[in-house]
Automatic annotation (TrEMBL), chains A, B:
Keywords: Aminotransferase, Pyridoxal phosphate, Transferase. InterPro entries: Aminotransferase_I/II_large (IPR004839), DapL/ALD1 (IPR019942), PyrdxlP-dep_Trfase (IPR015424), PyrdxlP-dep_Trfase_major (IPR015421), PyrdxlP-dep_Trfase_small (IPR015422). It catalyses: (2S,6S)-2,6-diaminopimelate + 2-oxoglutarate = (S)-2,3,4,5-tetrahydrodipicolinate + L-glutamate + H2O + H(+). This is LL-diaminopimelate aminotransferase. One of its GO terms (molecular function) is L,L-diaminopimelate aminotransferase activity. Homodimer. Substrate binds at residues 15, 42, 109, 132, 188, 288, 384.
Length: 406, 406
């Protein structure tokens, strides 16, 4: 009789967003006259930029004519996109990355979830706490995380690096040596960042300890301060210890378009085996390339016009982020993030748990956010708001939260 | 120091198509005046159907307007596509499949490669020989296949089911009981099929043995004979033992568009755990949905106009397949497939190995095909031609092969 991967059964239910949905629906049903504002989701709301829409139309036309039709894409992505990426995202920032180190994919979630496959089954992982759940869950599925403790919300074999108000949301170097270190910068969910000096400490540590940094830079486009690195490859030494994940989702509103890429530098090796060759083999065996149309859409993001348009969208969201950050700070809330990130991380009021605060905001202000405890044990007592709503709703939501403190 | 997944190092180099490419390039360079015809690749050549191009344009417009913009897709696919699939691919054939059993993805290769993850690490797999390499390679990466024997080209822990002229390319039930049985019907690379009665034997066997059939129906659109099932769910009992993979790649020329789906019936269980719930968890954790634009493109394939157009393309390719099959048969070659499949499987001449025959055809007829030995040990002595060229080239290639026997 066939058997299943028992590791899947260890995963606790993933109820965060469904519980939010149910609570909001119940509240709306009981209070049909209240206008609830949703600042909980991490999905964008602005439409695709005109230059990108144009590129999609052009690509569709090409696909409809025999002379310009494109079948299977190169496993690792079309040169036109890989070259644009290297030019604008790396060379422009002085990062030593080559086009053949770029692996184009259908998004950072897939890559972040799949990357663990190329590492040994007994690899020890370290994650920030709170954290984007995919890092841990994909390792649970692979059997690397030991047992789950319902009480603490922690896995026995995962090294947690708390990121809280106390340490300025900057994780400390772990006491136990990990094999794989997941870092998300700017961070989801806290919206905070590591600057170049802080990241250099991690790069040096990883090189010294023989660990790989799995660096998620999905929110790179939101960086506004000069001290925050746009890529880990700005840091000397990163080419021998880091893999970087990038996404078009938040930068260009591609959550429904699906495009991302991963950089695996050829200098990153275990003995004489390059991780680049392993990831290439994984891509070639279990993936058939990102769609031609989406790769042309991605290319358009790097055009002069496309870049201007997507940066206007980022600016729109960042005005929302500032509105939330500054408005709530002014009102006396303890608030973090929102400067180099579309996420604002808020301390709950009066020692409420994250869920108590959720209910409080829903009922008293008709504002929906995401309980911080949904991202890990150290997220308890915090709350995430996002900048992806409309400006008008964002202003309204901030006014309502302000009113609660008056 | 971090360690890699050592299973990746066990994989023999994947040189089939690169070796073909090098040999053809070398021949062309030495013989610049010769017009080489390529019938080796499995990629389509006709452009996307007009109704599909139209749907992509419409979807691009929607994505460009705030009121109709689509962000993250539902993990398992948009209802409009899942409903169309169920209606046209299942209900129309009397198959008991529901829309919430359809998982839309970026293609059958990803799904065929990833499906093994939800099964136990010590699962025993059975594959037809010759076979699409992804089934075995994805299990090698997961450590299920034991050791590779360079001499035989076989893995110690894989159950091989030879499909040759002797058994009419119909695999026999294995002597050892497998946990997972990969079946591809119509078959890649042989182009042959199992009929309903033959498939029923497998379904009954799997239910009896407690095995799961991983049924790859990527070439379903090419079925022309009434006795060949379009889905394994036409067979009674399949809902408790089978997962089915489908692709738009060969049906609608989507090799560069990327869209497929997998059917996991809710009745398929290990104890009280449904594989449906595991695959849903996998999808939700490591995948972020197929692009909205591609899902609308897929929907258009099921429209009256779209269906007519893609079926005209299939008919074009099948005229090529008939041309090859009948032409070569008439000339005295031993030829299989090509009736319910775009692949024609040919015995080599005079006991040549597959690669000897490759060189022979390249040099004597300037025709490129794929050596059968590239698909597994029992493919030795066979050769694959595909129907995806132009009709004119296909006719020419057949004339040249005929001439070799005169």
């Amino acid at each position: 009789m066939f058997k299943i991967n028992e590791n899947y059964l260890k995963l606790p239910g993933s109820y965060l967003f469904s519980t939010i949905g149910k609570k909001v629906a119940a509240y709306q049903q009981a209070n049909p006259d209240k206008a609830v504002i949703r600042l909980g989701i991490g999905d964008v709301t602005l439409p695709i930029a005109p230059a990108v829409v144009e590129a999609i139309h052009r690509a569709a036309e090409e696909m409809g004519r025999a002379e310009t039709f494109h079948g299977y894409a190169p496993d690792l992505g079309y040169p036109f996109l890989r070259e644009a990426i290297v030019e604008k995202d790396y060379r422009a920032w002085g990062c030593p990355v080559e086009a053949d180190e770029i692996f184009v994919s259908d998004g950072a979630k897939s890559d972040c979830g799949n990357i663990q496959e190329i590492f040994s089954g007994d690899s020890r992982i370290a994650v920030c706490d709170p954290v984007y759940p995919v890092y841990v869950d994909s390792n649970v599925m692979a059997g690397r995380t030991g047992e789950y403790d319902e009480g603490t919300g922690m896995w026995s074999d995962v090294i947690y690096m708390p990121c809280t108000e106390e340490n300025g949301f900057s994780p400390e170097l772990p006491k136990e040596t990990p094999d794989l270190i997941y870092l998300c910068n700017p961070n989801n969910p806290t919206g905070t960042t590591l600057d170049r000096e802080q990241l250099k400490v991690w790069v040096d540590y990883a090189n010294r300890a023989g660990a790989v940094i799995l660096y998620d830079a999905a929110y790179e486009a939101y960086i506004s301060e000069p001290g925050v690195p746009h890529s880990i490859f700005e840091i000397e030494g990163a080419r021998t210890c880091a893999i970087e994940f990038r996404s078009f989702s938040k930068k260009a509103g591609f959550t429904g378009v699906r495009l991302g890429f991963t950089v695996v530098p050829k200098d990153l090796k275990c003995g004489d085996v390059s991780l680049h060759s392993l990831w290439a083999r994984r891509h070639g065996t279990k993936f058939n390339g990102a769609p031609y149309i989406e790769q042309r859409a991605g290319e358009a993001v790097y055009s002069e016009e496309g870049n201007r348009q997507v940066m206007e969208q980022v600016a729109y969201y960042m005005r929302n982020a500032r509105t939330i950050h500054e408005g709530l700070k002014e009102a006396g809330y303890s608030v973090y993030g929102g400067v180099n990130s579309p996420y604002i991380w808020l301390k709950t009021e009066n020692g409420m748990t994250s869920w108590e605060f959720f209910d409080y905001l829903l009922e008293q202000a008709n504002v929906v956010g995401t309980p911080g405890s949904g991202f890990g044990p150290s997220g308890e007592g915090y709350f995430r708001l996002t900048a992806f709503g409309t400006y008008e709703n964002t202003v309204k939501a901030v006014e309502r939260l302000k009113a609660l403190r008056q």
